[in-house]
Amino acid sequence: MRHADWGVRSQRWAGIHSEETDVDGVAVHYLRADAGLGGPTHLLVHPMAGSASMWLDLIAPLSRLGAVIAPDLVGTLFGHTGSPHSRAATAELNARFLRAFTDRLGIGNAVVHGWSMGGLVAVLFADSAPDRVGRLVLAAPALPGPIPADEVRFWTTAGRLLLAVGPPVARAVLRIAGRRMLDLKLKMYADPSAWSSGNYVGGDPSRLSPEMTALLADELRSAQPRRLGDAVTAFASVMSALFVNRDPVYRAIAGLSAPTLMLSGDEDGLITTSTIDDIARRRPDWQRRVFESVGHLLPLEVPDDYVETVHRWLTDERSPM
Question: Which residues of the chain have pLDDT under 50?
């Protein structure tokens, strides 16, 4: 979904614009909001297989701190950026995409926000292009954490094989059943109180604005089932980074020089407290804020608190979170 000004969809999104640019021959859609009072550019990296529109409720308040740019990553399910080949939706290649995208727009020294699987992409991007990243904000980031020894054995043997052969099979199944799966997802959006069932999302999804809930449902209705294959590719690459080939991500985390703020919800059913604690032990210099009674949809559940936390951190890194 695109709008020259998203205010036509909701007044809360007025001043947010859909724009397009060419990156290495690929048409890239992104959202832009100009700065209210100046400040650094904020580059938002959405959860992989989602789209930039997932950030809409955060963009307007965040634009008070600086200009905001939110691109659709390569291979999104709901977005408008194409996938030039079957592997393009991986975390590693999306990090390279961000390097080319920021080069195209002339973005440097940005405050980069990575949410969920977008947090993994943001870390890899910051590691590969430190000149582009002034600071890093990781919201409920999908990063490797401690796992039991028996699970390590599984992922280095059967798990590795599963991630190699599983995606092609899944893509074949989705060509047949993709529309049905999207319709089932729509039923879930019709009842947000059921989103946290199974303790996956956590928090209180009813905090999402009615406009955001309606938009997510509309994007599901218009989603093209054939693009579910890119979601499989993205998911498999993240699972590999979290459970199989973890060392490159750990090296990236260890080598990051940009000041980093890590945000998490204490009711997140996807990113465990043990993972966040482990990252904090590896990088005790990173600032950390835990939001009470908040789940994996942190930027949408508490956008104003999110922005206020980032504002205080930008103003004074040493201020208590």
Answer: 169, 173-174, 176-179, 181-182, 185-186, 189, 196-198, 318-321
CA distance 59 to 7: 13
Strand partners, 32: 17, 69
Q: Are strands 26-33 and 17-23 parallel, antiparallel or unpaired?
A: antiparallel
Q: What CA–CA distance (Å, rounded) separates 283 from 260?
A: 9
Closest by alpha carbon to 201, among 301, 123, 276, 277? 301
- Which residue's entry shows tokens 């080319």? 100
Assigned fold of 6-315: Rossmann fold (3.40.50)
Structure tokens that stand for 230 in this block: 């890119």
What is the amino acid identity at position 195?
W
Taking the model in full, what pTM does it have?
0.88
* pLDDT tens profile 248-288: 999 999 999 999 999 999 999 889 899 999 999 999 999 99
**CB atoms inside a 10 Å sphere around CB 50:** 23
> Residues 227, 228, 231, 233: is their CA dihedral positive or negative?
negative
Q: What's the chain look like in SS3?
A: CCCCCHHHCCHHHCCCEEEEEEECCEEEEEEEECCCCCCCCEEEECCCCCCHHHHHHHHHHHCCCCCEEEECCCCCCCCCCCCCCCCCCCHHHHHHHHHHHHHHHCCCCEEEEEECHHHHHHHHHHHHCHHHEEEEEEECCCCCCCCCHHHHHHHHHHHHHHHHHHHHHHHHHHHHHHHHHHHHHHHHHCCHHHCCHHHCCCCCHHHCCHHHHHHHHHHHHHCCHHHHHHHHHHHHHHHHHHHHCCHHHHHHHHHCCCCEEEEEECCCCCCCHHHHHHHHHHCCCCEEEEECCCCCCHHHHCHHHHHHHHHHHHHCCCCCC
pLDDT digits (tens, 9 = 90+) for 10-45: 999 999 999 999 999 999 999 999 987 678 999 999
